[in-house]
Amino acid sequence: MPVTTPLLKICGLREPAQATAIAALGADAIGVIAVPGSPRYVPPEQRFGLFAAMAAGRPSRAAGPEDCFGVLVTADPGDDQLEELAAGRGHAVVQLHGDESVERCRELGRRLGVRLWKALRVRTPEDLERAAAYAGVVEALLLDAWQPGQLGGTGHRIPIAWLEDFRPPMPWWLAGGVGPGTVAELLGRLRPDGLDASSALEERPGVKDLGRVAALVAAVRGSGSG
Ligand SMILES: O=C(O)c1ccccc1N[C@@H]1O[C@H](COP(=O)(O)O)[C@@H](O)[C@H]1O
């Protein structure tokens, strides 16, 4: 049976030139961090420039299903932040990386008018049982490793064995320590719809090593026949 190649998101960019280069290398999405306190935080007034730079690097220069799209990463946003997260600011998706309940996700979906992904930070295998409740409320789930005192961008991995039987009723992305050195093992054992990579590709927080990004794109594209 043919194996579908997962989509690839490169997260935590801060420089427009990197957004252009990474879209041109063939990433399916880029992520921009809107979580204050993160070393990858980008203030609201700089985000549109990053997504516009990404669009300039798209192979076809026209948005289509196969083109690179923008993801804005937030965590437990308050109502005073909704304006900066809403549609029309260059991103197609808002990734909710905090402790957002199903009800809060439903409300945010109504108020933001963008596609939503819910990140679950997985501390134990039982945490995976929370996934199904988000079906029909968000477009996709993203699994990341739980770490004390940090929301994301930690480089820590979820044990693969916990995920081998994970079949949520919606698309799912795998994050946490994804890089060119780990992708073969991941895709040999798991079938996520997408992979999300950040700190394993970095020279320093927010600055990617483009050689490592290219190696990851090649490894993911070489992983399947679909
Ligand atoms: O990257 C950050 O600094 C960050 C801060 C707050 C919430 C999420 C964040 N990043 C997300 O973390 C995962 C995994 O990153 P890594 O590959 O393990 O470094 C990814 O989904 C980022 O979107």
Automatic annotation (TrEMBL):
Catalytic activity field: N-(5-phospho-beta-D-ribosyl)anthranilate = 1-(2-carboxyphenylamino)-1-deoxy-D-ribulose 5-phosphate
Example GO molecular function term? isomerase activity
Protein's UniProt keywords contain Amino-acid biosynthesis: yes
Q: Name one Pfam family in it.
A: PRAI
SUPFAM superfamilies reported in the protein's UniProt record: Ribulose-phoshate binding barrel
- Which CDD domains does this one have? PRAI
**Domain of life (superkingdom):** Bacteria
What is the E.C. number?
Answer: 5.3.1.24
Q: Which pathway is this protein assigned to?
A: Amino-acid biosynthesis; L-tryptophan biosynthesis; L-tryptophan from chorismate: step 3/5
- Tell me the enzyme class: isomerase
Keywords linked to the UniProt accession: Amino-acid biosynthesis, Aromatic amino acid biosynthesis, Isomerase, Tryptophan biosynthesis
Q: Which intervals hold domain N-(5'phosphoribosyl) anthranilate isomerase (PRAI)?
A: 8-218
Under InterPro entries, the record lists:
Aldolase_TIM (IPR013785), PRAI_dom (IPR001240), RibuloseP-bd_barrel (IPR011060), TrpF_fam (IPR044643)
Q: Keyword Lipoprotein, does the record have it?
A: no
| Family membership | Belongs to the TrpF family.
User: Which protein are we looking at?
Assistant: N-(5'-phosphoribosyl)anthranilate isomerase
Q: What is the lineage of its organism?
A: Bacteria, Bacillati, Cyanobacteriota, Cyanophyceae, Synechococcales
